[in-house]
Amino acid sequence: MAGEAHTAADYIKHHLQNLTFGRLPDGSWGLANSPEQAKAMGFWAIHLDTLGVSIVLGVLFLWLFRRAAASATAGVPGGWQNFVEWVVEFIDTSVRGSFSGGRNDLIAPLALTIFIWIFLLNLMDLVPIDWIPGLMAALGLPYFKLVPTTDPNATFGMSIAVFLLVLYYSFKIKGPGGFLAELSLHPFGKWGMPANLFLETINLIAKPVSLALRLFGNLYAGEMIFILIALLFGAGIGWGLMAGFLQLGWAIFHILIITLQAFIFMTLTIVYLDMAHQEHH
Q1: Which label site among 17, 18, 76, 227 has the fewest CB atoms less than 10 Å from its CB?
Q2: Can 54 be counted among the known catalytic residues?
Q3: Which one of the listed residues 23, 104, 153, 214 is annotated catalytic?
Q4: What pTM was estimated for this model as a whole?
Q5: How far, in Å, CA of 129 to CA of 222, rounded?
Q6: Annotation marks residue 218 as catalytic
């Protein structure tokens, strides 16, 4: 890390840069070794760190919950089974309280997956920021961002997936005519159709945008604060001791943030899908 960042600005930029794979200026394909190269790769570049960490944590989530299901007992449950049952009951209560659009067997598993997966992605923000990038630098990788939800590609990917489900169920439940009528006849009736269509389209598009930006903004800001605190460790013993207390305090407070953001994303997903199931006459 010391070889990569010589000033505070370099240190911050280094920690905010993704490990990017794409087409280099000479026409070959490979890793970007500078932010300029990553930018030049354009839209089709892949953030390998975001993708890799997301997949690993997704597999970890599936393995842990499958293990709990496979070893479940009707007798005295173990600690892990107790925890999983508590999480499932919590998700079930949230779905029952927010989803009233009839029966849909997808909603509860989707809500569970969203909550746990996003929580695990956010949890990576509590890993000391130099540990994994330092390890990856020793392996020859120029950059590595450990927190996928600080990458808008990840948060927009999840929100767009939710948006596509909303569109699917809106068409399935209401039909194309009913869905278009909902967009064009509310809130001002048939005489205000152009204004209705404009307002409702904006409202529809705003759902995935706000869903993605809320999660990204909160986690990006939290990561930035950890980076700024880490800079204090190089400013002397006094500042280093102060940075230690600040880091501990912010980490404890950040546990609330990462949990709350996972819960908000899950709850809004349930609410949006519930709205897609509602037929307005």
Answers
A1: 76
A2: no
A3: 214
A4: 0.90
A5: 12
A6: yes
